[in-house]
Structures are given as C-alpha cells and as structure tokens.
Amino acid sequence: MSEIFATTGTVAAIATAVVPQQGSVSIVRVSGFQAMAIAQTLFHAPGRQVWESHRILYGYIRHPQTQQLIDEALLLIMKAPRSYTREDVVEFHCHGGIIAVQQVLQLCLEHGARLAQPGEFTLRAFLNGRLDLTQAESIADLVGAKSPQAAQTALAGLQGKLAHPIHQLHANCLDILAEIEARIDFEEDLPPLDDKSIISAIESIAAEITHLLATRDKGELLRTGLKVAIVGRPNVGKSSLLNAWSRSDRAIVTDLPGTTRDVVESQLVVGGIPVQVLDTAGIRETADQVEKIGVERSRRAASAADLVLFTIDASAGWTEGDLEIYEQVQHRPLIFVINKIDLVDEVESKIIQCQIPNLQSKIFTAASQNQGIDDLETAILEKVQLEKIQAADLDLAINQRQAAALTRAKISLEQVQATIAQHLPLDFWTIDLRGAIQALGEITGEEVTESVLDRIFSRFCIGK
Q1: How far apart, in Å, do the first and last CA atoms of the chain sit?
Q2: Is a pLDDT exceeding 70 seen at residue 391?
Q3: CA-based Rg of the chain, rounded to a whole angstrom?
Q4: Are 203 and 418 in contact (CB under 8 A)?
Q5: d(Cα 75, Cα 45) in Å, to the nearest integer?
Q6: Average pLDDT over every residue of 339-354
Q7: What are the residues whose beta carbons fall under 8 Å from the beta carbon of 425, sequence distance 6 or more?
Q8: Sheet (strand 25-31) strand order
C-alpha cells in the first residue's frame, strides 16, 4: 500500500502558510479519533465554556507536563460526521509567525497524532464519502486558482457541477449493461432486445461525453495560464508596452537601446485567463557579454511561449533586424504589435504593414500614450480561440486526467457501436460497455486505483 493510504489514526498539520514575521493567525488542524483528547490535553478554556461541536473556545495552550504557556489561542471543535473529513476535527487558531504554531504542532505529535501526508485531510474526506474525486480535485484547483474565473470554475466543480453529469452517464451505461445482460441470462423469458433503442442511448451518452471534452482546453488555460513573450529589436517599446498593459513600472524605460538586460515578468488576467507576460531583452548581435546573456534568454523565452507579441517600431518601419528576429520566431503563434503609431501618419503605417512578411494578426499601439491595450487583449483572446472555448459550459472545465478517462469511455462506446453493427453476440457488446463504465467511474472515484489517488493527492499541500 502507498504511504498516502495509511489514513488510520489521528493526523495533524499546519493548515496555513508559515511566513516569518507575517500573518496574524496560524492554524494547526487535527483529524481523527484522538483529536478531542489531544485538544483537552493541550488546551485550557477558562470559565464555564462548553466543549461541544461547532463551538469556538477561547483559552491557552500549555505544555501538559511543564505547564509552560505556549500561546493564547482559539479552539474550533467539529465532531464527526459534521466536519471536513467526517472525523472528529479540532483546529488550534494560534498567533501567526513560526515559533508558536510549530510548538503547538509538535505538542500534537507528541500526544497521539502523526504528521499528515500531503492532501491527507482531503483524502480522508474522499474515502469517508464527504467528497467524490472531481470535488477533491476542484479543491486543489481552488487553492491554486490564478484568476477569479478559475476560482469560480473550481467552486462549480466543488459543488458537483462535473460530478452530476458523470454520475448520470455512469448510471445510464449501467442501465444499458443490465438490459443486455438480462437478455443473456433470461433470453427465453424476456422480449427481444430493442437494438435501435440501445444504439440511440449509446449515441446520446457519447454526445454528452463529447460536450464535456470540449471544456478541456478551457480548463487547461484556466489552470496553467498563457505564457506571452514580448519580443523585438531594442528600443521598439517592449518595456513601455508591458508597463502600459500591466499599469505599473515593472520595466525600466529609457531612450537608450538595450536597457532591458533580462526577462521581466508580470502576471495579468485577460478575459478570465491568467497571463504570464515576459518582457524580453532586445534581440540583436552585441559584444556586451551581459547583454548577450539577456538576448539568449529572450530567444529561449520566445521559443517556450504560447504566444509571441512581435513588437515593431512604426517610426523606424520594417528593418533588416526585424526580419532576422522574425526568422527565429515565425514558427510560434504570433501577433504583430506595431508600436509608436503616434509618431507616424496613416500612409506610413500602411507601408509598414505591406513590408511585414506573412502578416497574421496585427494591432496598433502607442504604449507611451496607453493606446491600443484593449485591442491587444482582444487579439490575444481571438488567438487562443476563446470564443470556441466559451461555447462550452462556462462553469465546467475538465482536467487532463478526467479528459483521458472520458476519451477512453468514448472509444469504448464507439467499439460497442461497431460490435452491434457487425451483429456480434450480446456477450461481445458487454466487454467494451464495461470498459466505458470503468473509465467513467475513475473520474468520480467509484473505480479508482491506489496509484491514481497517490498521484492526485500528492500534489496537495500538507495542511489540505
């Protein structure tokens, strides 16, 4: 058995970030049959406070043997089954920082608890029927959300937005299997099987799976975000573009070419999608060793980016240097940003467009004047085909594991249809139908292996 399956006993962990000299409150969470006993051993609640479920007690945490005062704290009590794990849970709400919370955790470990594995509280919630696997994964997505839309999608998953249709598809497949197996076992006692009805039901299930699979790209964008690199010659306005876009002064802006010597990052949200923007050093041949390193990093950033904003100086026009850079990044998804448009007239801007080879998406900006940023964001959303993604359910976004299981289920259903078309015996129909049922069960956790659970919950933080 994997270590993550050692979910017996009582576990404890710090459930909040531990940052030196920061944070007003730190929480130690304890779950298991000894949780109340540990709390009663360590926590002194003065007066006549009642130790009952879903109450908060005020008091002091003391070392049981030495009676040394550890912290002034609050104690939250949640008795089974009305808790996150459906076990007895207590939480010590201590002062923030490092020392006090670590001392409290150490006392819990010395008096019957062991340190929780990553994600073990949520794993216990899953194993005790508090959550299904899609809801557990939504919790991890919520903790790691990089945008409000990502958080809303995670909350929808936590509320069962994905679990409900998967459970229904699973149940529908079981109904079809039962119908077929009944004809196998009691053929003489039942009317003939309605092949057309079975085929129609399978097609309906497959169509719903296709609908769910359409949310995969949106889910990937919401979870991982989009990496965008601003590239171009020195002094074309890349740093000004970053500053105007991020509404900050992240990058140094001067009239001197080669000011940016390294990759400067900024985190933005565009249309609900997290975007990591990389302002790169101007790409050119140079004898400056430091600038050479910056140029090489720029090339690497451009090659690794999901989207390249190829920035051109409208006042200088299309140059030989632009062409050299284009030859290096032309294989990447591109948007041409024709910057400093405030310095040229309309005729000159049209000439520049004609000079750009293989012109794809283009927008015009005057970054120093904060002009064209809305057009830039619109072009980015169009480039990642957000309209297509938004055609799917906005509150629903599957992850890679769920997409793989849905794909297997769809393939199995297609095999069932092929088996029916070939007029093979009913026993053959059930083989692939069972495969679809198993794949759908893996999504919610009805059919799940230790290795899958280990992989999912090992990505959680220890206190969750």
Answers
A1: 21
A2: no
A3: 29
A4: no
A5: 9
A6: 74
A7: none
A8: 43-44, 55-62, 69-78, 89-95, 25-31, 10-14, 113-115
With contact defined as beta carbons under 8 Å apart, do 371 and 365 qualify? yes
The answer to whether residue 124 scores a pLDDT higher than 80 is: yes
Closest CA to 43 of 32, 125, 55, 84: 55
Using H for helix, E for strand and C for coil, what is the string for 308-337?
Answer: EEEEEECCCCCCHHHHHHHHHHCCCCEEEE
Is residue 242 a contact partner of residue 266, using CB atoms and an 8 Å limit?
A: yes
Residue identified by tokens 């629903």 is 396
Q: Greatest CA span in the chain, whole angstroms?
A: 90
Q: Give the residue carrying structure tokens 């879903």.
A: 54
238-246 and 373-383 helices cross at what angle (nearest 10)?
90
DSSP label at residue 259: -
Query: For 22-42, how does the pLDDT look when each residue is reduced to its tens digit (9 = 90+)?
Result: 678 899 999 999 999 999 999
Q: Among all chains, which residue has been given the structure tokens 């049922």?
A: 437
Round to whole Å and give the CA distance between 429 and 408.
Answer: 16
| Bridge partners of residue 11, in order along the sequence | 31, 114
Alpha-carbon span 87 to 33, nearest angstrom: 7
Per-residue DSSP letter, 17: -
Q: What is the pLDDT of residues 57-86, one digit of tens each?
A: 999 999 999 999 999 999 999 999 999 999
Q: Is the pTM of this model over 0.85?
A: no
Q: Is the pLDDT of residue 255 over 90?
A: no
Helix (H) or strand (E) holding 59: strand 55-62
